[in-house]
Specification:
Largest sheet: 7 strands, mixed
Structural class: alpha/beta
CATH topology: Hypothetical upf0131 protein ytfp
Strand content: 25-35%
Shape: globular
Number of domains: 1
Length: 187
């Protein structure tokens, strides 16, 4: 049987945002994480960007029934890349894909491309659960594109798969954003 998996480096690291289990720690060689702007959307996307000198921390999980259709639908803004040989993991995975916005479709974000705080809170919740506090804080240090403003939608989250926010995650996210010098916008 073929064991088809995907590599997640954002909200897919948070097991509460999907039913793909079990989740395993993993790293992707030759990629880094970045906030990017795309022409059809004002909000930033979190994407993986090819970078031969980087290693991207995240997770892998199986694709149920080896059927990519639902995951491709969820990740419709991204292109799927076979990264089986570039991902280190301890799982039965035999085939692993990574989703990334195609380089020709994105630019660096600007002042009109905010990051949803509810999305970031959900991502950091996942990183804290899987990689611990150090992994959650490493997310901030290893991600580029923090010049994008942060849209504070915590009171009325706009991210459809928002997960409950703990005080620990709130503090980590606020600390990480302060370290980046992020500008926070009210909704």
């Amino acid at each position: 049987m073929t064991h088809m998996y995907f590599f997640g480096y954002g909200s897919l690291v948070n097991a509460a945002t999907h039913a793909h289990t079990p989740l395993h720690k993993a790293t992707a060689k030759g990629w880094r994480r970045a906030w990017v702007a795309v022409p059809e959307r004002d909000l930033c996307y979190l994407s993986a960007v090819a970078d031969p000198l980087s290693v991207l921390h995240g997770a892998i999980a199986p694709v149920p029934g080896n059927d990519w259709a639902a995951l491709d639908l969820r990740e419709a803004a991204y292109a799927r890349h076979d990264q089986t040989e570039q991902i280190d993991h301890d799982s039965p995975a035999r085939s692993i894909a990574l989703y990334a916005v195609a380089p020709e479709r994105h630019t660096d974000p600007g002042p009109d491309n905010p990051i949803l705080l509810s999305y970031l809170d959900t991502v950091i919740t996942g990183f804290l659960a899987l990689h611990g506090p150090q992994g959650a804080m490493e997310f901030f240090a290893s991600t580029s594109g923090w010049q994008a403003p942060i849209l504070n939608d915590r009171v009325a989250p706009r991210y459809p798969r928002t997960t409950p926010l703990s005080e620990q995650v709130r503090e980590m996210v606020d600390e990480g954003l302060a370290a980046q010098g992020s500008r926070i916008l009210a909704t």
